[in-house]
C-alpha cells in the first residue's frame, strides 16, 4: 500500500508530494489532466508574494510581516483567519531555497509599472517552468505520477481516509491523503447555481470567462462537503479579474488581463462609471474588478484611456479600439454616445491634477464626482483614445474546506488524523474575499509543504501502529 496519496497536480499538490517523499514516504500523485495540461492554475502564475525584513536575493528593500498582514487584511476586508494568514506570511520568507533545490529559478527584481519588485519574487519562465521543475524533481525522487486520473470520491472510516475512487472506478488505498484538486471555477453549472439570477433577470455566470485550467470542476470538493467535511467561504467569492472580453473560455491565463484601469476610467454598457479606478496600486486591487464588472448590466465594462497612458502599463495581447474623438469611440463600442461623452466630460472637469506619479499614491484626484477617483486622476484629453472591452475572468474560487495549522480536513470541528488539504481547496481560510498579487502561490506553497509533512508523519504513525499490533 502507498503511504501518501496526493490528489492534484498544481503547485500545492507538488509541494505536498515533494515534502512527503523527502520525509521518506512512498507517494502517488493523481493529476486529472493529460500530461500536456498538467499543473492546474499554477501553470498560469508568475510570482510569489514574500515577506522579508531586508533585501534578499531577488527582492529589494523590505516587506515585513506586519505590512504583508495589513495588505491582506485590507483586501479581504477582515474575512481571513489571522493565525493561518500569518503562518502563510512567515512561511513565504523561507521557502525560496527549498524551491531552488527542486529546480525553480527566480528572475532579477522587476521595476516599473508593476510595483512589485519589493513584494514579489518572479519565477524565471513563469508558472509553467515552476510546474515542470517540480514534476522533474518528483520523478527523480521516485514519486509515482498518473495523468488523466480524476478522483471523484473518497472512502472514509469516520474521519479517517481509507481510499480514493477515480472516475474510471479504480479504488486506490493509501495510509494518508492530501487533497489539492483545486476549486470549482471551471464548473459552469456550479457557478451558475452559486451566482443565480440578478435583479435584471440575467444569469451573470453565463458571461464569465475562466482564466485558469478547464480541469478544476470541483467534483471532489463537492463530494467532501456532502460527506460532512467542514466548509468555509462564499461560493460567489473568487479571484476574479476584469479581462479582455475576447479571451478564450478557458486557460487564457495572465496575458488576458487589462492593466490600464487605474490610468483612465471604466464605464458600463450604459456609459456610466461605477467605481473608483484609482483606489490603490493595481497589484492590490486588480482582482476586485472582475466582480465589479460581473455586477454591471450584461457583465461587461470598458476601460478607457487616452494617449498619455500608453507606455505606462503592460500592453494587452490584443489591440484595443481606438478613435480620435470620444463620440467616435462611443460609436465604435456601441455605447450610448451622449451618456458616454457626458460621463468623460464630467470626469475631466472634476480632475484636480497635482503631481502625477503612477508609482505612488499621488495627489491627482477628483472633486465633486461620484464615484470619486482618488489617485492618478488626469483628464482624458489627448487623442487618440483607446478602449478595451472587459468581462469577468475567474482564476479560482474561494469556497473550500476548513483547516487548522496542520492542514487537516475537519469533520464536525475535529481534525482528521490522516486526511489533509492544500491549495485552492482551502484558500478560503485565508482569502474570504479580495486578492493581492502572489498570495495564492504563497498559500499553496505553505500549506502544500505542511500537508506533505503531516501526511508523511500520519502514514509513518500508521505503519508503526500496524507493526506493533
Low-confidence stretches: 464-469
Instruction: Give the termini distance in whole angstroms.
Output: 17 Å
The biggest sheet, with number of strands, parallel, antiparallel or mixed sense and barrel status, is: 8 strands, mixed
CATH 4th-level superfamily of the largest domain: FAD/NAD(P)-binding domain
**CATH class value of the largest domain:** Alpha Beta
Radius of gyration: 23 Å
Regarding quaternary structure, what we see is: single chain
Which fold name is given in CATH as the topology of the largest domain?
Answer: FAD/NAD(P)-binding domain
Helix content: 25-40%
Mean model confidence by pLDDT: 95
Number of individual domains: 2
SS class: alpha/beta
The CATH architecture classification of the largest domain is 3-Layer(bba) Sandwich
Number of separate helices: 12
Question: What is the strand tally?
Answer: 20
Query: What's the shape?
Result: globular
Please report which band the strand proportion falls in: under 5%, 5-15%, 15-25%, 25-35%, 35-45% or over 45%: 15-25%
Describe the structure.
By secondary structure, the chain is an alpha/beta fold. It folds into 2 domains: 273 residues, FAD/NAD(P)-binding domain (3-Layer(bba) Sandwich), CATH 3.50.50.60; 155 residues, Flavocytochrome C3, Chain A, domain 1, CATH 3.90.700. 29% of the residues lie in helices and 20% in strands. The chain is built from 12 helices and 20 strands. Strands 1, 2, 5, 6, 7, 8, 19 and 20 form an 8-stranded mixed β-sheet that branches. Strands 9, 11, 12, 13, 14 and 17 form a 6-stranded mixed β-sheet that branches. Helix 2 crosses helix 3 and helix 10 packs across helix 11. The radius of gyration is 23 Å and the shape is globular.
Amino acid at each position: 500500500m502507498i503511504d501518501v496519496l496526493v490528489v492534484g497536480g498544481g503547485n500545492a499538490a507538488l509541494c505536498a508530494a515533494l515534502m512527503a517523499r523527502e520525509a521518506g514516504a512512498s507517494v502517488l500523485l493523481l493529476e486529472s489532466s493529460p500530461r500536456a495540461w498538467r499543473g492546474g492554475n499554477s501553470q498560469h502564475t508568475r510570482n510569489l508574494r514574500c515577506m522579508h525584513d531586508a533585501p534578499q536575493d531577488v527582492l529589494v528593500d523590505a516587506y515585513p510581516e506586519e505590512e504583508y498582514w495589513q495588505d491582506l487584511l485590507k483586501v479581504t476586508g477582515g474575512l481571513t483567519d489571522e493565525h493561518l494568514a500569518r503562518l502563510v506570511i512567515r512561511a513565504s520568507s523561507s521557502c525560496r531555497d527549498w524551491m531552488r533545490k527542486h529546480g525553480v529559478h527566480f528572475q532579477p527584481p522587476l521595476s516599473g509599472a508593476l510595483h512589485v519588485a519589493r513584494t514579489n519574487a518572479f519565477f524565471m519562465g513563469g508558472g509553467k517552468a515552476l510546474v515542470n521543475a517540480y514534476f522533474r524533481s518528483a520523478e527523480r525522487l521516485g514519486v509515482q505520477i498518473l495523468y488523466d486520473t480524476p478522483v471523484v470520491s473518497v472512502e472514509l472510516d469516520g474521519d479517517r481516509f481509507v481510499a480514493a475512487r477515480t472516475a474510471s472506478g479504480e479504488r486506490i488505498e493509501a495510509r494518508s491523503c492530501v487533497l489539492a484538486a483545486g476549486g470549482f471555477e471551471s464548473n459552469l453549472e456550479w457557478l451558475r447555481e452559486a451566482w443565480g439570477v440578478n435583479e435584471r433577470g440575467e444569469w451573470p455566470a453565463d458571461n464569465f470567462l475562466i482564466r485558469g485550467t478547464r480541469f478544476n470542476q470541483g467534483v471532489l470538493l463537492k463530494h467532501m462537503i456532502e460527506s460532512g467535511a467542514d466548509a468555509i467561504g462564499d461560493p460567489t467569492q473568487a479571484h476574479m479579474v476584469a479581462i479582455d472580453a475576447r479571451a478564450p473560455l478557458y486557460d487564457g491565463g495572465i496575458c488576458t488581463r487589462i492593466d490600464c484601469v487605474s490610468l483612465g476610467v471604466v464605464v458600463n454598457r450604459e456609459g456610466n462609471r461605477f467605481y473608483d479606478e484609482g483606489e490603490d496600486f493595481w497589484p492590490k486591487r486588480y482582482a476586485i474588478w472582475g466582480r465589479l464588472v460581473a455586477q454591471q448590466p450584461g457583465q461587461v465594462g470598458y476601460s478607457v484611456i487616452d494617449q498619455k497612458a500608453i507606455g505606462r502599463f503592460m500592453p494587452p495581447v490584443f489591440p484595443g479600439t481606438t478613435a480620435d474623438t470620444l463620440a467616435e469611440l462611443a460609436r465604435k463600442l456601441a455605447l450610448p454616445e451622449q451618456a458616454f461623452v457626458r460621463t468623460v466630460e464630467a470626469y475631466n472637469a472634476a480632475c484636480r491634477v497635482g503631481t502625477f506619479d503612477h508609482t505612488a499614491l499621488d495627489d491627482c484626484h477628483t472633486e465633486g464626482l461620484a464615484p470619486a477617483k482618488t489617485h492618478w486622476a488626469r483628464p482624458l484629453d489627448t487623442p487618440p483614445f483607446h478602449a478595451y472591452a472587459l468581462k469577468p475572468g475567474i482564476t479560482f474560487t474561494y469556497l473550500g474546506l476548513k483547516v487548522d495549522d496542520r492542514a487537516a480536513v475537519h469533520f464536525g470541528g475535529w481534525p482528521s488524523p490522516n486526511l489533509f488539504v492544500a491549495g485552492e481547496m482551502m484558500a478560503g481560510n485565508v482569502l474570504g474575499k479580495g486578492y493581492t498579487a502572489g498570495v495564492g502561490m504563497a498559500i499553496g506553497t505553505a500549506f502544500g509543504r505542511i500537508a506533505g509533512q503531516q501526511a508523511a508523519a500520519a502514514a509513518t504513525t500508521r505503519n508503526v501502529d500496524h507493526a506493533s499490533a
